[in-house]
Amino acid sequence: MANNTSVSPISPISPVMATYGRFPVTLVKGKGSYVWDDQGIKYLDFTSGIATCNLGHVPDVVKAKLEEQLQSLWHCSNLYHIPNQQELAGLLTENSCGAQVFFCNSGAEANEAAIKLARRYAQKIKGTDSFEVVTFQQSFHGRTLATLSATGQEKIQQGFAPLVKGFSYFPFNDIDALNQLDVIKPAAVLLELVQGEGGVIPADTEWVKKLAAICEEKDILLMVDEIQTGIGRTGSLFAYQQYGIEPDVISIAKGLGSGFPIGAIIAKEKAAKAFEPGTHGSTFGGNPLATAAGVATISHIVESDLLNQVNEISIYLDQQLEQLKEKYTFIKNIRGKGLLKGLVMDTDVLNIVKKAIEKQLLILTAGPNVVRILPPLTVTKEEINEFILKLEETFQSIEKGE
Ligand SMILES: Cc1ncc(COP(=O)(O)O)c(C=O)c1O
After folding, report:
1. 85: CA distance to ligand 1 center in Å?
2. pTM of the model
3. Ligand 1: which residue has its CA nearest to atom 9?
4. Residue pLDDT, tens place only, 10-61
5. Separation CA 290–CA 399 (nearest Å)
6. Fold of the domain built from segment(s) 60-303
7. Multiple choice CATH, 27-51+305-399, 3.40.50.720, 3.40.50.960, 3.40.640.10, 3.90.1150.10
């Protein structure tokens, strides 16, 4: 078939499957906190590709490292040593409580690896027949069969029965419910420290500490899904570092490659040794290009003053949002950590996101009633002022019923 008949601009059927409800915008360029569409219209991007472009769009440090790697080797299999992989694993373990890293390509794959590691740890290291992983209501852990089964939201699971067995969904932030851990005796617990997709809900410190203490006492692996909260998003490299705990497994992706696809789990030695040669793998996982992006991203974050800046600027963002809340009664609450913020609304949030696009502002929803705000970690005060102005214009046009 000739090329021009396969993709017709007037065809009602797109050649891309309809797994996403897309906004009517085609983005073709990005730099820092801004993106441009195919008509040349500039948007302030407070989504960061859903917590992925944490250093802003096309950051110079990552671009330079990728360009250098493009000249030498794009891909080789994991049957050989890959220097960028070694370097990135070193950076991640030096800057976390973990000892070893497994590389993959996405968040869902990172959680798949964590779930597999938990089962092998329970069965091969502890010598039990345990396989259960406790997760939490409203959680989100990915779209593969195992990770959607781990996810505590029915809407993500509908139509995919039978689910992968071995998940129990506990109520989030509920101290009393933790007593049930002794009954289930799971292999692991998997949690987000701020539930992102579920509505930007931070975990309570006291609850997390109690959970960590039970896991330690019962030798249950404590696994944190830092796919959205990691890579500086909440003001520390990983969110767990603000909770006074040391997880056994940390899953990461999104911001790790600044937009280049890469995922990973970082595990403490006791858990990591459950994976031996032949037990898990990925063709692309940790390939030279992906890990070049990771090395440039993580070295920049740990060597620069960026995390201090995130902590300062997020206080400024909070103050500005609080002022908005006083003005607009449909903002019920502001929650989140660092530069992962949610505005709990009693009005249609999808409409807000759509109207914001008309004001050249990109923001997100998180569940039915939360507007999610994810500026890049490099955001400036001036850009936050611009954001507040555009958000106010959006609110005003909604109030006027436009
Ligand atoms: C907390 C969390 N876990 C897992 C995932 C899945 O990541 P990916 O889309 O890269 O598979 C996401 C994605 O939004 C996430 O926010």
Report:
1. 22
2. 0.96
3. 107
4. 557 899 999 999 999 999 999 999 999 999 999 999 999 999 999 999 999 9
5. 45
6. Aspartate Aminotransferase; domain 2 (3.40.640)
7. 3.90.1150.10
